[in-house]
Amino acid sequence: MFEVDLKPRRLADLATVVPAERIERLQERVVPRMKEQLGGGAQIINVNSTASGGGVAEMLHVLLPLTLGVGLPTRWFVLEGDPEFFALTKRLHHRLHGNKGDDGHLGAEEAAIMQRVAEQNVQTLLDNITPGDVVILHDPQTAPLAAMLTERGVPVVWRCHVGVDHDNLYTEEAWEFLRQFLYGNVGEYVFTRPSYAPDWVAPDRLRIIKPSIDPLAPKNEELSEEEILGALSGSGVIAGPGFGGVTFARADGTRSPFTIQAEVVREGEPPSADTPLVVQVSRWDPLKDMAGVMEAFAEYVVPESDAHLMLVGPSTAQVSDDPEGQSVLDGIIARWRTLPDEARRRIHLVSLPMDDPEENGALVNAIQRHAAVVTQKSLAEGFGLTVTEAMFKARPVLASAVGGIADQIDDQVSGVLVADPRDLEAFGTSLNGLLADDEARDRIGAAARRRVIDVYLPDTSLDLWNEAVLSAIRHTRT
To answer: What is the pLDDT of residues 339-387, one digit of tens each?
Structure first.
């Protein structure tokens, strides 16, 4: 287990995006109450399984510096495991989404693997806990730590970022497996939607908190057209003169030049700057259905439009908690090779290095801002931060009506939803409609940005997290 270095962020920094009355409410009412109720010196400690490369890590990079900045001692630790452990937790990830995943089991042997990894990590955590601290554990990887902390009187909040609205045999199996670690050992459970919680979570211990994005992070900051085109052409994503000295702003306020080189699978030349670009950004995960996006684009969009498709994911060697990524990417590349020549020429598979997460985020930012349409054709989705990020950038998003995506998008108003994520024709038809209608793209994009500012910025959840933490303390003491 290792600690992530956090730098405090001021709430006032958000004032360029967040309405002034919301900032004032936090500063004058919410934050003083949080400090008073938590007491002086108590730490809020978060634990998850990766510091980069996924939505959970991105959310923590948003909320924790702000929490630290308002004067609440906040720390972040990352649990480390071996390939056997992460293959098991990927199995849990699939089954909590209602899919089988691999052919592996969830039994006593698998429970022992989870317990072993927790025991290898817990001492570092215990060495850093002081009386009065609260620990927030994130997702299945951390579940066995709950009992180890509770037996020492440490209040525990367990935050699950995944789930589905309707259980099946796979979700029931996964929840029964996790119950042995969590039930009776968690003061408060936090989910994105009420339907994601298993029936053994008591209503008085359940909290619903929506994720949020950092509007000022390198991944979301405003970029000029010169910066967008320089970043994209320099990295090899589109054709053009190259970086040209363009820079991006880091979280600490300094500026750095773009230098990142994308790993691109394509045939022929990169698209020109004026080529309409359809983009999906996500992990190389079968539930994100990058292959389905490619199939729909090749069959239904290529004959009707001159647009290109860009599927963008992280470099697979640099996402430690997702052992499945390389095999998924290999499968997509193999299918891409079988496509007709014209479709293959207009579909680009892009992997972005993760060595510098801020520069990675800045390049994702440029890609999303350059897109004519952003898609998220997930088969299942706990929330979908890439949807939120694209909406904030006033991009029209075409997405599956699954999980948290359906909470974010009001169909035909702040985005376009496809009811059945496996219906390639409906997806392709909707995509053609957006590509052909400039007015609709502008109208939907503007409404999307307003929706994110109203609901999904970090100030909206700080007080909810305060209530969750205080409730966990009360449950631990009773």
So the answer is: 999 999 999 999 999 889 899 999 999 999 999 999 999 998 989 999 9
Instruction: Give the 3-state secondary structure of residue 210.
Output: coil
Q: Which band of pLDDT confidence, cut at 50, 70 and 90, is reported for residue 474?
A: confident
- Read off the DSSP letter of residue 82: -
Shared domain for 65 and 135, answered yes or no, is: yes
Kind of pairing between the strands at 397-400 and 373-376: parallel
Closest CA to 146 of 125, 161, 128: 125
Whether the full predicted model's pTM is greater than 0.70, yes or no, is yes
CA distance 121 to 238: 43
Contact 26, 459 (CB under 8 A): yes
The pair phi, psi for residue 383, each rounded to 5°, is -140, -65
Q: How many domains does the chain have?
A: 2
Q: Note whether residue 218 is domain-resident.
A: no
* Nearest residue to 293 via CA among 338, 335, 342: 335
Three-state SS for 326? helix
Tell me the C-alpha distance between 331 and 352, whole Å: 18
